[in-house]
Amino acid sequence: MDRLRSAVTASGVSRDIWIGLRDRLQEPSWKWSEAGTGEVNYTNWASEAELTHHCGAMSANGTWTDRTCDATIPFICRSGGSEELYVVEEEMTWMDAQRHCRQNHSDLASATSPHENMALWHKISENETTPLVWIGLFRDSWVWSDNSHSSFRNWGPLKPNNDGRCVALESSLLYWQDRRCQLKKAFCCHGEVTWKRIVRLEMTSSYLSNVANSPLPEMILSQIKGRLKGAKVKIW
Ligand SMILES: [Ca+2]
């Protein structure tokens, strides 16, 4: 997000710009809020058959349940690297809880294995007044155009508001919002950095008075081209 902001600032574009996230119009899939967690493989749903909402919470017995994301309940954050878990008893919506965790810790905690799930459950069980807490589980149908699995989302308040299936970074550079894909906007690409180096080679001959009229330069050039065959070198 910081690199994106720097690139947009450097470009001088002061309107909102397209980023590579779009709605794939398919069944939403579950993801973890924490970066680098990839697809959700391990699950611990109390009942998988009746999942209808878009945000995930952990019950007092360690199983997961889905809730509408606007529900206000306590939540559990993780601090990056330290593996430390923090239960925040203040009741918030899932999005506000995510924002709180990102600002004060690392992110809403995820449970990508039985071991991690146990750790979250133990932490939550320390306090009997929190029967249900938000964990970093959410589902959406947004996908990145480079097919990466990043679950990083940076929606502005009350976004997405379902008025478009493509995503733009707002001109404030703070948040994303959904916009109609037909709109024409500046955009930002990413790719590998290509380094270019130009080498100039000058040759002089002490025994040919008029090199330009001799076949020698062509012969030397074809020898060099032969040696550099296959290398990404342009000779002119
Ligand atoms: Ca919108």
Summarize the structure.
With 236 residues, the chain is α+β, with helices and mostly antiparallel strands.
Folded structure, characterized:
The protein is an alpha+beta fold. The protein contains four helices and twelve strands. It has helices at 2-11, 94-104, 114-125, 216-227; strands at 17-23, 29-32, 55-59, 64-67, 73-79, 84-92, 107-108, 132-140, 142-144, 166-169, 176-179, 186-187. Strands 1, 9, 10, 11 and 12 form a five-stranded mixed beta sheet that branches. It has a four-stranded antiparallel beta sheet with strand order 2-8-3-4, covered by helices on one side. A hairpin with a 6-residue loop joins strand 10 and strand 11 (176-179). The radius of gyration is 27 Å and the shape is elongated. Bound molecules: calcium ion. Calcium ion binds next to strand 11.
